[in-house]
Structures are given as C-alpha cells and as structure tokens.
C-alpha cells in the first residue's frame, strides 16, 4: 500500500503519471506485477499541508507500506529509483520528494480474508 500526499493543484494533474512511475519502480526493484498496484492519493488544500522550508509547492510525500523482508540495499535502491525516475518523468526535484518506507510483520497485514503470514500464493518475493 502506497499513500501519496501533495497540494491538490500540483498533485491532481500528475496523479496518473506519478502512479505509473511509482509502480514502474516497484516492479523494477521489487518485482511487483501490474495487478499489485495499491496506491492512494491524498490531494490536500494548501492550508492543510505544511512542509519544510526550502521546498516548493510541488513537495510530495510518498509513504510505502510493506511487509518486512526486503534488504536494506533493496529499500535504498527503491528510494533512489523513485528520486531519479520522478525527476526525469515529472520534473519534480528530489528536494521536493519525501519517501518513507514503513515495514510491518506479515501477520500485521490482512488481505483476501487472511493475514499476510498465511498467504502462500504471492506473485512477488518479499525477501529480496
């Protein structure tokens, strides 16, 4: 599950393209298939979205929630791919992008009527 926050006037026009870039990075680095795209966009009013000084109104926050198991190197590769590809495809400077990866144990995930540690038919690898 990925949650993306930004100022609505900046985020809304690029949602589809940003979604594609994020998922391409998830596929390239983590091996996610196209049918595993799970993203939520939260366009915000300017007065509801405070961000650090030195950033523009293109400031975008990307929270990536995933099951534990990915190596530190893999997570860093994902973050770096996102910085590079978002800048190349959408001209958003890395200084205007904040990425956090939040990991939870498989038993803390629930989908398709079971917990993540009960699933045995994932089409992607968690331990990469």
From TrEMBL:
SUPFAM superfamilies: Tautomerase/MIF (SSF55331). Pfam families: Tautomerase_2. It comes from the Bacteria. This is Tautomerase family protein. It comes from Psychrosphaera aquimarina.
């Amino acid at each position: 599950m990925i949650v993306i926050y930004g100022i609505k006037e900046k985020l809304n026009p690029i949602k589809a393209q940003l979604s594609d870039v994020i998922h391409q990075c998830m596929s390239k680095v983590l091996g996610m298939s196209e049918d595993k795209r799970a993203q939520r966009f939260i366009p915000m009013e300017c007065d509801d979205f405070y961000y650090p000084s030195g950033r523009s109104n293109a400031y975008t926050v990307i929270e990536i929630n995933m099951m534990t198991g990915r190596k530190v190197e893999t997570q860093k590769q994902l973050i770096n791919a996102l910085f590079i590809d978002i800048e190349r495809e959408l001209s958003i400077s890395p200084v205007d992008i904040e990425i956090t990866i939040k990991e939870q144990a498989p038993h803390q995930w629930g989908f398709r009527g079971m917990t993540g540690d009960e699933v045995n038919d994932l089409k992607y690898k968690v331990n990469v």
